Amino acid sequence: MDHDDSLQRLDLKGLKCPLPALHTRRALARALPGAVILVECTDPMAAIDIPHLAHQDGHVLEAQAQEAGVLSFRIRRGSGGAGG
Fold first, then answer.
1. Which CATH number characterizes residue 11's domain?
2. CA atoms of 58 and 1, how far apart (whole Å)
3. Is the four-CA dihedral 2, 78, 60, 47 of positive or negative sign?
4. Is 17 a residue of the active site?
5. pLDDT tens digits, residue range 21-58?
6. pTM for this one?
7. Catalytic hit among 8, 15, 17, 45
């Protein structure tokens, strides 16, 4: 595990659409450009919604995985002014 101080963890397990995407968007809007957010959720729709919002808002989806029913997304905050 890397020890990145700019890594923020967002535990959204158990939340249903559209809440995971909304919480992710809010966290990205508050983060500094270049910060990394690790989002973990269980809603299957997040596999579509979260990559879409990251692209739409100008962020970088660095990694996406699924293990034991948990979806995880590693998103780097873009430098643009998009967001909340």
1. 3.30.110.40
2. 26
3. positive
4. yes
5. 999 999 999 999 999 999 999 999 999 999 999 999 99
6. 0.87
7. 17
